[in-house]
Amino acid sequence: MSINEKSKHALKTLLLPLGIVGLSVLLVVVMIRLRSRPEAKETTAILPTVEVLRVHRGPHRLEVVTHGSVQPRTETSLTSEVSGVVVEVSPSFFPGEFFEEDQVLLRLDDTEYRAAYAGTKSRLAQAALAIQQERALADQALEDWEDLGNGEPSKLVLRQPQLVHAQAELEAAQASLALAERNLRLTVIRAPYAGRVREKFVSMAEVVTARMTPLARIYALDMAEVRLPISAEDAAYVYLPESFENNFHERARPKVFLEFDLAGETVSWQGLIDRVEGVIDTTTRQIVLVAQVMHPYRRDGASQRPPLKPGQFVEASIQGHYLEDATLIPRGALHGNKVYVIDENNRLRMRVVKVAQKGIETVVAESGLKEGEFLCLTPLEFVVDGMEVIVEKIFDEPDVGTGIP
């Protein structure tokens, strides 16, 4: 092959790829120019939707909720001071029956005690006669000695020891008569107070041993008590009626409302916190308050409320400190010490609040929220102060001051 032919072949080999590349570039440019442009769309932000609560401020009383069992303030194991056979049983001396103070519940056979009373009465008469005789003999002895006129008489001559002995016999007879009279009176078993029979242990013809045989278990009706344990944290919310060794007592006696369920209906009783027990439970570290309810078996007017019986388990709401201006919010709306408030531009604002009391379901906020503001109730995964939201629903709770006792 000649030199010219080789040059032409090399040039052809070089220009062919360049032509292909150039043609490709030209096609790309033409396609870009001929393509359709997409319509410009406006960017739409995805905003979270929230539910809010309209804030209402007003007076509020703190409350501590606890539980306890009712027990009588006074309960007695009734026994007899004398022995004997039961000869009479009152219709009121049965479990569940009521009785009045000083009412006869039982009678014991008093035959022996009447005999003892008669015997001691006779000995008292003899002792009274003996002392009169000794006084007369003593007077006569003094006159006889004065007639003799022979120095100072001895006490024995004047019968003074005999007179002292007669006086002692008289006093012993009087004491024996008082004891016999007491024993005779105690054969009649009377109620020490108005109350109710819890348990009965004896019946007709049974032998009762003095101070040993239990007759019954009774309790008084004037007052019921409920032991209510509270934590040290809850104790800060209520006034405690503490007692001190110098006979100083706190006068505060908070109200307490007791409730229990009976056949699907809620029964309520009102009482007062009377005292604080003197020890703290070492296991639970709780303080025990004692609530008192007056006349738990009394029915007033047309009320059909059932009595507050011993052993009844109740829920207790103890009234605490009174706040002039506060708001009640759901516990879930509190995040640490902050809440989320939705402003007039539907933007979320973080707000620090002062909490007066935290409950299981609610929180009492003393400051940090204003009347009429919207409190965010919806839990949010991501929160940025000032972020925009959509308010989906507004709840309007009643004023927390309504019904404050």
Describe this structure in words.
The chain is α+β, with helices and mostly antiparallel strands. 25% of the residues lie in helices and 36% in strands. The strands form four sheets. The chain has a six-stranded antiparallel beta barrel. Strands 17-16-20-1-21 form a five-stranded mixed beta sheet, with no helix packed on it.
| Secondary-structure element order, N to C | HEEEEEEHHEEEEEHEEEEEEEEEE
Mean pLDDT: 86
- Rg for CA atoms: 49 Å
Based on secondary structure, the structural category is alpha+beta
- Portion in beta strands: 35-45%
Please tell me what the overall shape is.
rod-shaped
Specify the oligomeric state. Answer: single chain
Q: What is the topology, as strand order, of the major beta sheet?
A: 2-11-14-13-12-15
Number of helices: 4
Number of strands: 21
Distance between the termini: 122 Å
Low-confidence stretches: 398-405
Sheet with most strands: 6 strands, antiparallel, barrel
- Report helical residue fraction: 10-25%
Outline:
The chain has 405 residues and is an alpha+beta fold. The chain is built from four helices and 21 strands.
Descriptive tags:
21 strands, 405 residues, 6-stranded antiparallel barrel, alpha+beta, disordered C terminus
Please render the helix and strand layout as text:
Elements: H1 3-34, E1 49-54, E2 58-72, E3 75-79, E4 84-89, E5 98-99, E6 104-108, H2 111-148, H3 160-185, E7 188-190, E8 195-200, E9 207-208, E10 214-220, E11 223-230, H4 232-235, E12 255-262, E13 265-280, E14 287-294, E15 313-330, E16 338-342, E17 348-352, E18 354-358, E19 362-367, E20 374-376, E21 390-395
Parallel strand pairs: 1-21
Antiparallel strand pairs: 1-20, 2-11, 2-15, 3-10, 4-6, 4-9, 5-8, 6-7, 8-10, 11-14, 12-13, 12-15, 13-14, 15-19, 16-17, 16-20, 18-19
